[in-house]
Specification:
Blueprint lengths: L9 H9 L21 H15 L6 H7 L4 H4 L6 H12 L13 H18 L15 H15 L5 H28 L3 H17 L3 H4 L1 H10 L12 H27 L10
């Protein structure tokens, strides 16, 4: 399921994101009468909780209203609709990423820490991965997260043209890794997950006895990289373990590439081709 941010009214969404409309207590227009019992922040917090617990498919104004003990209609005083609410949720969740992250002087360590923290963030809120990057939200917390990453990248000494592409590369890599881990978690159901792999692996060997001859290099890689299964009931299920190890290995290779560019000089890696 892919959803697109930025589908609501541009002026109202941006005003809520940046709180520039100076609304009364959370979004209602100023006027006589008692202060409302809801706030935009309370609605956004409840919406994030719904998405965290039940997934993006469960998100609706009605579900958020029920969580707050209100009707869906009561929310529209504060948030114009679900499209604007999605923008607010997405940006509010990004407040968890360290915005004031200062470099340690070791850019490789800094980027490793950033990648691990960002992976953990996505896994706390896997619904964020369903929000397409085709149209960014353009909210303050998302910008703060980007600013923090750029600050770390400037520690490499590479020029701005290269850094601009590295920002996209790093986010694409971490989002992809997080998606793989999240998918593995969603598919895994304890013992059933092990049974799934065992049954299909056994069937594959039975139905394709010449598998190693058909795919010799793949079989060689699997054979040479095989390791004993971790012991204990707390061992991470195979698919998630594979996804996490792929993240670690891929990040090392990606950082090796950046390190090579750093050794070449500030303009290394820059290209004018699309």
């Amino acid at each position: 399921m892919v959803v697109y941010a930025g589908q609501g009214d541009a002026r109202r969404s941006m005003s809520l994101l940046w709180r520039s409309a100076a609304p009364r207590e959370g979004g209602a227009a100023a006027g006589p009468g008692p202060r409302p019992g809801l706030t935009v922040d309370a609605i956004v917090t409840a919406a994030i909780a719904v998405a965290d617990e039940d997934g993006m498919a469960a998100l609706s104004m009605r579900a958020v209203g029920e969580r707050l003990g209100r009707t869906a209609m009561a929310l529209y005083t504060y948030v114009p609709g679900k499209s604007e609410l999605l923008d607010l949720m997405y940006d509010a969740a990004h407040a968890e990423l360290p915005a004031g992250r200062a470099g340690s002087g070791d850019w490789r360590k800094d980027l490793t820490d950033w990648a691990r923290d960002t992976l953990a963030f996505y896994l706390r809120h896997p619904w964020v991965l369903q929000v397409s990057q085709a149209r960014p939200v353009l909210g303050p917390h998302e910008y703060a997260g980007l600013d923090a990453l750029v600050r770390l990248l400037y520690g490499t000494g590479l020029d701005a043209g290269v850094l601009r592409r590295l920002v996209g590369t790093l986010f694409h890599f971490v989002r992809g890794a997080a998606r793989a881990v999240a998918d593995a978690r969603e598919a895994a159901t304890g013992r059933a997950d092990e049974e799934w792999w065992y049954a299909r692996s056994a069937a594959l060997m039975e139905l394709v006895p010449d598998f190693a001859d058909r795919y010799p290099e793949l079989s060689r890689m699997e054979r040479e990289s095989a390791r004993p299964e971790p012991a204990g009931d707390d061992a991470v299920p195979y698919p998630e373990r594979e996804a996490r190890e792929t993240f670690t290995a891929g990040l090392d290779v990606l950082l090796d590439g950046i390190e090579t560019a750093v050794r070449r000089g500030p303009g290394a890696g820059r290209t004018d081709t699309p």
